[in-house]
Amino acid sequence: MKLVFLPSIVHMAKKPHGWYKEITIRPVVAVDGYEAYEKVCSYVAEVFFSTNERELRQKLITNRQESIYTTAYTLYKVGEAKCPAYWVGKDLLTALMQSEIDIEIENLNWAMKTGIFMLPQGTVFSPANDSLSAIYWHYDDVDKLLFWTAIDKKNSFCRQIKVNSNLTKNIYVDIEDIKDYKPQVISEFNSYIQDILLRLILIMGCRPELIEQEDKVVKINKGFAKDKAIDLYQPIWIGRSYSIKRDRDMQDQGGTHATNPLLSL
């Protein structure tokens, strides 16, 4: 989906004053190597303050193959949940991208049904070779539907998937209306991003020790007056201290050849 078309379809309204605080639980300090949290939330705000859930759900039914509504609905639900976000450590993300992990999606523990995974810049690239800054997701546990979207500089890539107990009956709407690429390219890239998303969800349930949260508040002065200071929080991390076992580590442990980094779950 071309992001430039978003305003004309969801009837963009001007974001209200103070929008950032209104749709965020924890305003977060800037993190080197990651997109600014406020900018990532701004995509959410543009949808959240311009439409409503009932209208979006109707659009999803009547326009199943138009990616804008899958993206818009996902962003709306993330805004409704007040943009909970998790910063993914670069080594952990690299390990997940290079490992083969079989995931039974219907058995995942959706402790967090809605949120944002903040990705390290320069790690995951779209077909246009632009770095993806975040993956937004929402899981509807009533209708067993997973919605997600990922955004680069110009496009959003998204999918909605029906999660059934019978894997052979799983169906999904694979959005392929980006005219610059062949449908197969979009489908394969969507599968790649979905694998990353599901592995991160799995990590949150199976490896809670990799989740790091500091309650320390940082006070940022916006001017000379004390009432201009704002409180920002440290990010919630997944795998900040995780490190890939390099070739030297493998040799020290008796390994004889290089292997892809694998994550023990």
What does this structure look like?
The structure is a single chain. The chain has 265 residues and is α+β, with helices and mostly antiparallel strands. It has one domain. The protein is built from 8 helices and 10 strands. It has an 8-stranded mixed sheet with strand order 6-5-4-3-2-1-10-7, with helices on both faces. The protein has a two-stranded antiparallel sheet with strand order 8-9. Helix 6 (90-98) links the parallel strand 1 (85-88) and strand 2. Helix 4 (53-62) packs antiparallel against helix 5. The two termini are 35 Å apart. Mean pLDDT is 81; it is low at 1-9 and 247-262.
Question: What's the gist of this structure?
Answer:
It contains eight helices and ten strands. The chain has 265 residues and is of the alpha+beta class.
Features:
265 residues; alpha+beta; 8-stranded mixed β-sheet; two-stranded antiparallel sheet; 8 helices; globular; disordered N terminus
The overall number of domains is 1
Mean pLDDT: 81
Please give the radius of gyration in angstroms: 19 Å
Which class do the helix and strand fractions yield? alpha+beta
Q: Tally the helices: what do you get?
A: 8
Q: Overall 3D geometry?
A: globular
**Share of helix, binned:** 25-40%
Main sheet, how many strands, which sense, barrel?
A: 8 strands, mixed
Order of helices and strands: HHHHHEHEEEEEHEEEEH
Number of strands: 10
Question: Unreliable runs, pLDDT <50, ≥5 residues?
Answer: 1-9, 247-262
Q: How large is the share of residues in beta strands?
A: 15-25%
Distance N to C terminus? 35 Å
Query: What is the topology, as strand order, of the major beta sheet?
Result: 6-5-4-3-2-1-10-7
